[in-house]
Amino acid sequence: MKTHFQKFINSKHKNIYFLIALLFLFTAAAFSYNLKSHDLLVDLGITLVAITAIYSFYNKKQHLYIGIVLALLIIITNWLDEMGSENTIIVKIASTLLFFSYILALTLRKLFTTREININSIIGVINGFIVLGIIAGTSMLVIHTIWTDSFVFTYEEPNTFLSYIYFGFVAITTLGFGDIVPVTPPGQLGVIIFSVLGQMYLATIIASFVGKYSAMKK
Fold first, then answer.
1. What backbone phi and psi angles, to 5 degrees, belong to 97?
2. Quick one: which of 117, 108, 106 has its CA closest to 215?
3. Across the strands, what pairs with 153?
């Protein structure tokens, strides 16, 4: 039993499980937006993401304990909001932002310290970029909550979490479709910061991996 547990903990597919959970979150949020169970499915997706994120970074007890605390916070606040608990929205957004920021920090640390370039590390890069997009979208939601009307929508203003995540990815990839426009200084500053961070992420990770790949070939 202990051997099977150790194999599970030390699995080389941790990043794949995390990626699957992230994709489930986005898929559930996208295809259930007009269903009554939308919020429930999103909360389920966030719960799975939190669990797989902890599993992905189980290597050190310190990371495990901090991850469990943050994961429990995000899970509890999301489910409390689902049950109609009042005054949880700010805590929910803050816990989401804090949790994914911590996961991104661990992801970057893992990517920069890895010596071998393989499919697992490449998936880790993808996961990191997705997490950065979630952080960007959550930050946009924070800005829009604190500074009302920071963003102008060319369509009816969304009330779904995915809509802000979508805008977060638009910002970090510098696509700029024009369907969501920042019109206040805080909103514009947020877009500038994440546009820079998105390009920095890609540039530094690619440069790091190219250097490591060249070293492996020598």
1. -65, -45
2. 117
3. 180
- C-alpha dist (Å) from residue 113 to 109, 120, 202, 205: 6, 14, 17, 11
CA distance 11 to 51: 15
Calpha distance 168→5 (Å, rounded) = 37
pLDDT in tens, 183-206: 999 999 999 999 999 999 989 988
Domains of the chain and CATH, by start: 2-213 (1.10.287.70)
113: which residues sit within 8 A by CB, 6+ positions away?
Answer: none
pLDDT in tens, 25-39: 999 888 887 877 777
Three-state SS for 181? Answer: strand
The SS3 of residue 44 is helix
Res 2 pLDDT > 70: no
Q: Record the pTM.
A: 0.87
- Which helix (H) or strand (E) segment is 151 a member of? strand 151-153
The sign of the torsion formed by the CA atoms of 150, 156, 161, 167 equals negative
Sign of the CA dihedral running 138, 143, 146, 151: negative
